[in-house]
Every structure is written in structure tokens, then in C-alpha cells.
Fold these 4 entries.
Entry 1:
Amino acid sequence: MRIIAISSGKGGVGKTTLACNLGLAIAEQNKRVLMIDGDLGLANVDIHFGVRPMHHLGDVLQGKSIKECITPLMKNIDLIAGGSGLVELTHLNAFQRRELINQVQDLQFSYDYAIIDTSSGIYEHVLHLNAVADECIIVLTQDPSSFADAYAMIKVLHQKYKLQNFKVVCNQMKGMRGEQLFIKFAEVVERFLSVRLSLLGSLPFDENLQKAQQQQRTIMRQTTNSPAAQIFREIAVELVAESDLSGAHNSFSENTSQRTSGLAAIFKPATGHA
Ligand SMILES: Nc1ncnc2c1ncn2[C@@H]1O[C@H](COP(=O)(O)OP(=O)(O)O)[C@@H](O)[C@H]1O
Ligand SMILES: [Mg+2]
């Protein structure tokens, strides 16, 4: 199972929109996708898919098996919903942590990809989610605060977790191409931090995305031939091609110097300071 974390410094930039559509686009390629709603404050992946999950990850803490907490979405794509109970994940005792890790490990052979939608901002659990991911995707917009916050996020992930590779998606672009924004951003980031950034894709500001969301439909399902849906597909094709090339990661048994040891780290208490 390859883990993809989607983050940003700032909220409202399109993380959840990207996570959901990318999930669908990867599932379209006949890969099994598990969406994990890691936004503890504002869990809303379920809303984008128009489902009402019976259970969420917080229920696992109450003794439910993680398999019972999976909400099927469509062919090849399932969800572990977020929920208010998730806040407890940062305050687990050793026994609870072990139990949760075991449960998540049970899923690793059931899916090809886990896509984690995170909350905005530099919180410990968001950093952990990125630290265990095989791919960190940062969503960037033209908004100057998005620029500054994305920089801050990358800086902390690099300095604290030694992450070096980030993929950037430029979103909500107006009157400027994503490539231009990316070059500007990469110049600043790479001047001060020894990290590598690559542009994964760029989406124009498109009010159809908002309309789709208001109707609790992702654009990939709503208007499958829209320009935005095509871009999500291109991004998915690139990600899948890349991971097929590098060989699927098994995040549980691997422990590279670039990151903490697998998904287990999600549930570990934080060390150091952000
Ligand atoms: N490319 C885009 N063009 C126009 N609106 C967008 C675009 N991407 C996302 N949005 C809208 O921006 C708002 C915030 O998106 P969301 O995915 O919830 O952001 P986040 O998860 O980062 O907080 C939503 O109303 C969404 O429909
Ligand atoms: Mg969100």
C-alpha cells in the first residue's frame, strides 16, 4: 500500500477536493484505494462523496474492528471517515496505540493506495501523517498566505522529519499559469531549504468544482469530461506510473532514513517541537 498525504499550510485551498477526485481517478485505473479522512477538525471527505458513514476511526478506539469502520464508496474505493473521536488519537496509551497499529496493518494488503486528507496547518498529527507517507502533496494557491504557509509547512517537515521530496499541486489558478506560480515558489523554497519540489499538476479556478461539491458530488462523477476531471486523471496516471516504476512500497516493513517507521508513527506521541 502506497500512502499519499495531501496537505497545505492554509485551509480552503482545495485539499479535500483534490484528495477525493484523485482517489476516484486512481480507482478508475483499477487500483484499490482507501481514503482516510485525517482532518481531525473538519472531517468532510464523506460529504464530498455524499455518504453518511456509520462508523469512523474514533470508533476503533472504542473497540470496533477497523474493517467494520470502512465505508464503501464506489468500485475500488473505500473510506475510513474522520470524526470528533479522532482527536483522541493524539492521547493514546501504549496499549491503544498498539491495537490501532495492528488494525491498520491488517488493511495494507487490501489496498494499493491510501490517500490521506489532512487538516490545514502545522499540527503534530498532520506532520506525522506526512512523515509516514510515501508521497507528500502540498496544495498551493496564488493567495500570498497560502504561499507563506506552504513554505512553513515544508520547512517544518524538512527540519523535523528530514523529508526532502514534495509534490506540488497549484490550485484555483486565475490569470496565471500553475507553472509560473510553481517556479516562483520553488525558487524561494529551494534557496533556503535543501528539498526537491516537483509540479504534479495545476488546476484553474473552476466554479464547477464548487457546484459539484454543493451537490455532494465530486467533479469526477459529476462531469466526467470536464477539464478539471481530465487534470485529476492526468495527475493520477502520473502517480500510478511513478509508483509502478519504483515498485509498490510497503510502508509497514520499510523504514527509510527519510521518514519514521510506517503508519505506526501516526499513532505515536509527538517528539520534538514543530
Ligand atoms: N480549482 C478550484 N476552483 C474553484 N473552486 C475550488 C477549486 N478547488 C477547490 N475549490 C473550492 O474551494 C473550497 C475549499 O475546498 P476544499 O477542498 O474544501 O479545501 P480544503 O480541504 O483545503 O480546506 C470548496 O468550496 C471547493 O469547492
Ligand atoms: Mg479539507
Entry 2:
Amino acid sequence: MIPALMPNYKRADLAFEQGEGVWLTATNGRRYLDFGAGIAVTSLGHAHPKLVKTIAEQAAKVMHVSNLYRVPQAEALAELLVQNTFADSVLFCNSGAEANEGMVKMIRRAQFENGHPERTSILCFDGAFHGRTLAMISATGNPAYQKGFGPVVEGFDHAPFNNTNTLREAITPHTAGIIVEPVQGESGIKPATREFMEGLRAVCDEYGLYLGFDEVQTGVGRTGKLFAHEWYGIRPDVISVAKGIGGGFPLGAVLATEELARHLTPGSHGTTFGGNPLACAAGVTVLEEILSPDFLEHVRTVGDAFGKMLEDVVSRSEGVFDNVRGLGLMRGLHCVPPVADVMQAVLDQGLLTVGAGDNVLRLVPPLIVTEAECREACERLLKAALSLKASAAQEKVS
Ligand SMILES: *Cc1c(COP(=O)(O)O)cnc(C)c1O
């Protein structure tokens, strides 16, 4: 018989009842080091005292009022984002896919209002991941996510990632804008090259297109800058944000320049839950922490040290891990055996990770992680590699 909870996830047989910082305690009593952070979400770690206090206090006052009224918490969070980014205005929603939908709608609407109603197509890239709504499985383009869910939504084209030469060929009279992840996450932690990012901006300026970054995974401090595009010095027109911005509370956002944002006139777009007092109070606390002096410097320092430790893991685990990629606290280890086997071996050592495409083990710990905790994680990775090698040798013998 089908379980009451729909079977659309492949879940580990493990449930957690208490977290603290980078640690989670399972119902079986075992403690785990959490380098998955709920897929790059719990940016301040588990049970962060300030975030817990904010949510408890806000819940006791007012959780939801709808966008029929002013929401001071949303105004405060938008103000913080505008002050600290390229953006002039912010739209709140509830998830990454929804943020990307908002980003696409803004791009199309702006082209429409600017006298280009024929410009409706969004250029995306091979290996992208933009979410699971009907439009976003089209944007993602991966047939595995589309199977049986057709007809696919029109208006999304694809070109090779990190290939500046094929970029111009992909632009048509119908192209409205370009959307790219500064570091592809789901498909295996692949940073865009500087040349590619510069090429994207140049092409957008040349053809009058809008450049959107999907910063759902890379944003809110993950790579050591507030947003990953800052590493490249490239100005976007619009970005989507979710995952880490609520620290575990569901929250998404679209950050845009006035040129795009001004076309979302009253009634043009909306969501019931988007930007509610509880979610935005959580977002304000998360952002205040991340913008506090030294926080991002901490992410960069620990992230660099972690990167070096992972290089060392690679050099000492031949036949299991063969390269490390990524930046800041968004890292991937390329695996030789199937990543699912590696994840299990790593889990057996009490370390939580996330799989990614291209047979990559994803390491995205809470941003408050210390160097000592990174060292502990690397020791567990090495133990897991040893156990995998031992069982592979065993298989050869038998
Ligand atoms: C996770 C992710 C999404 C989808 O976010 P949801 O909140 O699951 O809808 C979109 N884009 C990127 C880059 C992501 O990593």
C-alpha cells in the first residue's frame, strides 16, 4: 500500500529531533555532523538562539496578514537587501522555483512594456537547475525532470555552459533574457568562468536583453560574498534568492533593478504567503547576522581552509575522491565509485552530505561552521574512503 506521505523522495531511514549549530541528533540517539544544511538552507546552523527568538516572538505577535496591508518586516528586509546589493526593489515569495518564475515574469514584462512583445524566450544553460514547477522544468531542460510531465512550457532555450563562443548563436529575435547560476549547484558544483560571465553581460548589453542570476543556492553568503556574482564584478538586472535567506524558514525573493521592477504594477503579480511577517522577521535576523562585521570574512577564511583540507582528502583517497571544486562553503568532491555509495559510507561515519549531478558529493555546511568542524568532517570523509577501499578490496578477493 502507498504510504500516507507521497513517495516522491528517496529518503534515508533517519529522522532528527534536535539540532545545535552544525550538529543534529537523530531519533536513534546518534549525533551527526551536518554538512548538507538541509540542501544549503540552514545558513546560521540549527537552533540559532537569535533566529529561534525572532521566530518565537513574531509568531506570538502576528504571523500572517496578507499583502492587502503593509508588512513592516518585509519593508525592513527589502531595505536591507537594497542597501547591500545592486537591487532597487525586492519581491518576496516562498521558494526558489517561485522566485525564478517571478524573475522570468519580470524579464518578459519589461520587454513587453519596452515595445518588444516578441521577446519572450529565456536562454538557459546545459546542466542548469532552476526548480520543479512546470515552467522551471523547462528552464532546467533536463529530460529526467520532465518525463511524463509534458507538454513542456515553451519559451526556454539552452546553450552550452561556460562556452562564450556558442553564446551569440543562441540569441534569436525572440530572446528576452539570460538566466544562469554563477555556480551550478545540482549538476555538480561548477563555477561559471569569469570570461563566460563577462560574455553574458556583453551579449545582454549588445542585444538589449536582461541578465538574471539564479542565486537560490549560491546566495546569502554561501560563497563568501553576500551574492556569488560579486566575485565576478558583473552587474545583473535581476536575481532570484531562496534556500539560505530564511535560515530554514521558507522564504524566497526576487531582487531587481528599477528598470525591471517598475513594471510589476499593482495587481500584476502576487502570492498569498509571500513576504509574510513571520518569514520576513526570520529573513531580517538571518541577513543581520550575515551582514554583521566579520561574518562573511569568516565564511571566506573557513571556506578557503576547507578547500585546502579537501585537496588533502583527495590526495589521500585515491580511487574514491579525485577532485574538489567550488568556492567558499559550497564545495563538491568528485567521486570515483557511485556517489550514492559514497554518501552512504560517509553517513555511516556520522557525516551528512548531499549528492549532486556528475557523481559529485556536495558539501554545504551552515555558514557558522568552524575550521575545527571542517577538519572533523574531513577526517570522517577519509575514514569513509578507507572503508570503501577496504570493501572494494574484499569484493575482489571473494
Ligand atoms: C534549489 C534550487 C532551486 C529550486 O528551489 P526550490 O526552493 O526547491 O523551489 C532553483 N535554483 C537553484 C540554483 C537551486 O539550487
Entry 3:
Amino acid sequence: MEITALGHAGLKFQVAQSTLLIDPWFSPEGAFLASWFQFPENQHLLCPDLLQPTAIIITHEHLDHLDTWFLNQVPTHIPVVIPDYPSPQLQNKILVAGNRPIHIIKAWTPWKIAEQIQVFLVPEESPMNHDAAVVVELGNRVILNLNDARLSTPQLHQICNQLGKPIDVLALQGAGASWFPLCYHYPPEQQQTLSKRKRLVKLNYMMRAIAAVNPVMVLPFAGPPCFLDPELSQFNQEMESGIFPDQQQVVAWLREQGIENALVMLPGDRWNLEHQTQSYDPQWKDFEFGAHRSYLQAYASRRENIIASFKENYPVPQTSLWQNFKAYFEHLLSLSPYFNQQIGMKVGFEIEGPGGGQWAVDFRPSSQGVFQKIEDCAYRYRFSSRWLVPLLEGKLTWEDFFLSLRFSAWRNPDQYNDHLLGLLKFAEPMALQAVEKYETTLSSQEMITVQSGGKTFQVQRYCPHAGQDLLHVGEVLPGDIICCLGHHYEFDLTTGKCLTGNCPSLHVVRTT
Ligand code: FES
């Protein structure tokens, strides 16, 4: 009974003759427009046996988890198991790699994969994020694979209660999967500070999850990515102190916090659940995390031709994209008055190169429309016209594009606009309605008492962003601010106003 690391978030579970794969990512083109690549490389694991699993679980639609190149190598009778999200996007993306059985599993419902393999899936609470944890019961052993999902502490406790036995391995993401702050216009020093802070936020979440489930072993995985296109190679610096720490750094940090039971597993390394022993893939005999610069140089030259021919598939357009842009965003504006109102600003698009222009989309109900003038925008994106073509044709999702880091952005006020990303990434009524329903029915009735600097406040218990319980994840900061550790939105305790994002206010009353 063992787990094999497949690289990045890929894991293989084996018991007797049955094999389950979760999120295998092997594409030689990497992911997100050939920008992310597996670190370190995992191609040596591709063999006929790996392509004949009993089943594959795909946790969510990010392309470093859903690899259609890999699925194309797997016989079409092998089923894929996915969470039940309020949108068919994940299912549709899997079908691109050919027709095969897809089992859509309801949250918390056990699903038998084989004689000694059973799973259940736990999506994040808010339908704004389509991420889900996988609980794998392998014989009498249990693995909780959080991958990119940020489950709340009550959800983690509920998993432990549902299992009624210890968790043998907790696998969770140690490096970020984000374009913030890397693609935003900040002075270099501020950029570094924000990046370090984001790294710490991710590591602190790991600590909370570890404390909540108290696993026998911890496995940091699902990153970091590396960047082999010379246009993006500056982002490899993020491994050093920014948002993409490597596995060894994460384990070292956890050790400093007193967590001694964390593992570094490279692609091909195996963990025996019964004997609690690790077997090392000889491939990594001479590998050193500290020497990643020379490793990446050689890796980049092995992928140079692949990246060049990938880009040739996205030629710059020869005619103006304005009419297509206008039609695309007019349709988007018609999908959800609720989202338009929540976005509540004008967004500019500076499309560089042939076919491009300076265009804007105004989401404010009183001035809504798509325009050829870009002034007065509170948010701006800048990128090459070659990427706008697949975005407008629906061949590339906005979130996959943003994760490619092949753009830059500017915003004023400097606040995260969750609904802007939500509208762009879902762009279909069912998923948008699920978010609207969830957010408009969040209870603001129940209040908790919060002390700050000698003052007392009654505060709405559930965060207005995505409903996490502030009793567990509310941290009071200097200056009468409460930070929701769910996604780090900060609220002014005296007014309830959200200070860091485009989010409804928190219901607050000062009592003393
Ligand atoms: S639930 Fe997202 S910040 Fe609170």
C-alpha cells in the first residue's frame, strides 16, 4: 500500500492490483500557454503501466491538474472522477481529450474505485472557487489530498469526524498558484514585500490545516512551477523568497515551526503507508534544490523547441479584433446584473500588437457598455493581441491565461475584485447564479464579540466574502481591523468596510 509522487500535484495510489491517479500532469508543453513546467521534470515516469490505472481523479480545471495531453494517452474506457461543481466546464475540458466515462461525485459522498480504494470529495464552501479536496481510503489507511483547495477549519474537522480514524498523510500545496503580485505594477520593493507576505499566508494556512487534522505525515506538493520560456524566466526568482517556495524550503519552514513529520517527495519517490518508509527514485541521486538555477538552464534548453513551436500556433491577428471584443463583452455584460453590480467599475484592456487597441468595458449599471476609449478605468490589463484571439474564441479561459503570467495589470484603488475574475472565469449563467445565491443568502444575523484595543465590537460571524467563520479565522490587527484568514480580506471594525477587496461590508456594532 503506497503513494508515489508523480511530480507537482500528481499522486499515484496503489493497493493490490488497483491504481488510482490524482491530477497527473506530464504534458511536455507544460501548462498555461507553455509558461508553467513541472519542477523537477517528471517525464521519466511515463511508462505503459502508468497509462493503465483503474481510475483518475481530476480535482479542478487548472491545467496543471487537468492535463488533456496525458488523458489522450490513456485508453478511453478508463474512467475519470470529478467533483460536482455548479458548472460543466471541468467535464467539457476533459471531453476535449476524447469520450470516456466521467463520474461526477456529490460532495461528501463515498465512491468506491476498487476493492480497497474508496474516496470522497470535499469542495470549498463558496461556489466562487471550484477547488476540492480528495479523501482517499486505501485499505485501512487514509490520505487527505487538499491540493489547491483551502478548506475551512470546520470542514477539516468534519472530515476527521466522518473518517473516525487518524489521517496517515496530509498532502497540501506549499507554493502559490497565482499571478498576484507578480503581474501587477508595483515598485520593486513593494513587489517583493507583497510576494513574501503571500508566501507566508500560504505557509500559515498549511499550519492551520496541519493543526486541524493532526496527520501522521505531511506532504507539501502541488508546486512550485518553473518557467522555461526566457520571456518569463524572471519568475523563477520567486522560488528564492517569493510565492513559489520549493518543497525543501517548505519542509524547512515547517520544521522551524515545530512540525517534524513533513516529507520531501520528488517525482518517482514512494511512501509506504504501512511501514512509514520512503523509497527514493534514483533519478534524483545528484539533484540539489539549492542548484536549481543550473538545473533550470539545462531544462529550458531541452524545452526550447517545444516552446517555440507552441507559440507558432498563436500567430498575431492580421485584422482588428475590436468587433469581436465588443460582441464578446456585450454578451458577458448580459449574463448577470448581480456580478456587474459587484464589479462596479470600468476595466481597460490595452491590447498590444496587430489587431489590438485600447478598449474598455464599463460594468457600472448606470454607464454600462463596451467602449473604444480607455480613460477613467480603475483596472487595466495589458497583453499581446495573439492571446486575445483564443480568449475571445473560448479556446482559452481567462483564468488559464492569467496563470500564464503573460500579461501585466494595474489597479487603483489597489483592491482585489473577486467578482471581476469570477465573471471572466465562469462566463456562464449556472455558475454565476450559484455564486449569487450563495452570497445573497449568507447569514449576517449571527454576531460574535470581538475585542480590539480596549474596545468591544459585535461583528457578523460569517465573513461576507465567502462565508468563513470569523470565530475561527478572524484575526484582530492593530488599528481596529479584523482580517479574515479565509482569503485575507481585511475589514474596518468601526465601519465594517472591506479595506482590501471589492467585498460587501461586514455588519459591525461598537458596544463599548
Ligand atoms: S471567506 Fe474569503 S476573506 Fe473571508
Entry 4:
Amino acid sequence: MRAMVLDQPGRPLRLEQRVDPQPGAGEVRVRVEACAVCRTDLHIVDGELPVPRLPRVPGHEVIGIVDALGTDMPPGIALGERVGVPWLGHTCGACPYCTSGRENLCDAPLFTGHGRDGGFATHLIAEAAYCLPLDLPGDPVHLAPLMCAGLIGWRSLRLAGDDARDLGLYGFGAAAHLIAQVAVHQGRRVYAFTRPGDSAAQAFARSLGAVWAGASDQAAPVALDAAILFAPVGALVPLALRATRKGGRVVCGGIHMSDIPQFPYRLLWEERHVLSVANLTRGDAHDFLRVAATVPLEVRTTAYPLERANEALADLRLGRIEGAAVLIPA
Ligand SMILES: [Zn+2]
Ligand SMILES: [Zn+2]
């Protein structure tokens, strides 16, 4: 197998030939068809999010085919089946979070491409119970971004509240372009906030159903019921609070964010909430995949051969990608 390996944060990934791994108890080997590139991968490669051990293969938006089974397989996983491998790769099942339906907050989790090797590779080993059987139509390149941009976007949308009819999305990248379509399908009005001057992203947002698109430092045309921040920019938190009505919510969808600047208490007052989204549960994944099967999602991707992962990361860092970057093993 081949993998793009992170030896040290801040250094480019290195192509490595490895012996094909064998799945252990409860594990499968997945032959990767496509793996999308998430901003979290960028945080890992840039050293903003430490990984437990190096070297590490990033990548947690995997679509692939089960090509070897370990022992003790859970029901429902078969050789030759297409699965998705998301960020949540293992939970302990015993901590207070796992036993209360909040496995996304597990005390001893393993995350794909973080605590175990991920999908910037031709193959990976995954725990079968955390693989998502896929009976969605579509090609693997278009399915891959659903595995994190879609899933985390979905959890963020849920936390924004069912009553959020006027919804602001800050940062119109991979996650926002998917979740905007889901929100519009649900009858919400979407307001897209991009980097000032990014008229291409604003036009992209309007083309996907946003009723308004503008710069993040612009006032929204209405008071928002909720806002979701996908851009990892702490300075957006007070801006989004300012744009949100009494009792509204500001949901931070990323795993890492620059510092939030000091802001006057009156922006938070009147029962506004600021909250973060951490990881996902398998329940979220099943709910979102059900939704994705009914909403005709337009998934915008830019494909790169696996060996050009560094180029994909650089393009994401510079905001040069419309939609999602996806790596494809040759
Ligand atoms: Zn991700
Ligand atoms: Zn746990």
C-alpha cells in the first residue's frame, strides 16, 4: 500500500510504501476510493491540533471498499461492500458520555487520521462498528465530503436549533456548501458570510439557494435566529453575536479556532448562546445519511491524485478551493 505520511507538523507529507496491513479483531481493511481533505487535516499538518503519535496518516473522509475482514465482525459488514470511514473511529462504550448517548464526547476515543491512520492512503484499517454502510448513489469522489463536511455540518445545523429559520453561515467552504442545501431544503433562509471581497464564494452561495451573501464584516439584512461558524476565525464570534437576535445561537463548527477577541457583554446578553460542536455520534451519521439520500445535494469537488496531497492542503490553506478537495489513489 501507499500512504501520505506526516512525520512532523509543519513539514510536507511524505509518500511511503508500506506492507498491506491486516485487520485485527473487530476491524476491516478498506481499499480507499476517495478521501476528502478537511480543515482538521490542515490543523493537524500545521501543528495546530496535536496528534497522539507520529508518524501519522491523516484523512477522515474516506469512501472505500471493504477488502479484508478481521475476526469478530459485527453484523452488517461484508467483503466488497462500500463504506464510509468518518472521524469517529472508536469510543470506549463505558464512560459517562458513552453511556448517556454522547459518544462524541467519549473520554477515550480514537479519531481516524488522528489517533489511528487515516485515508490519505490506498488502504486503511478501521473498526467495523464505526464504518458507515453506504447505499447512497453517486461516485466516491462526491460521497467523500459527506463524511465530515456533511456530518459535522449536520450536527452543527441540529445544534443551531429546529426553530432557526434565518440562519447565517460564516465561511462558505466544504461544510457550508453542503449544509446550506440541507437548510434550504428544510425551508430555512440561508445568509452566507465570506471573506471580504470573495465574490466567487458569494456567487457560489447564491447559486445553492442562499437568499443573501456578503462579507463577514457586513451587517445581515435581518436579525439571524442562529449562526454557524465554519471558518476557524475567532474574530467572527462577536460579529456573529452582533448579527443574532435575542435568544439566538452561535455554533462554532470547527475543532480549532484562532482566539476570540474581547467583546462587550451586551453582545451575549439577552440569552444569546455560544457553543461548539465536537466530533459526531454514529446516530448523527445515520440521520445525516438518511437526509442525504432524500435531498439532491450538489457536491462541488476538486480532485487530486493521492500523491498531490500537499498541493490540496496548500490550496485549502489559501482558500483556493470551491467546495471540497478530494484525494484519489491512482
Ligand atoms: Zn473533518
Ligand atoms: Zn467513552
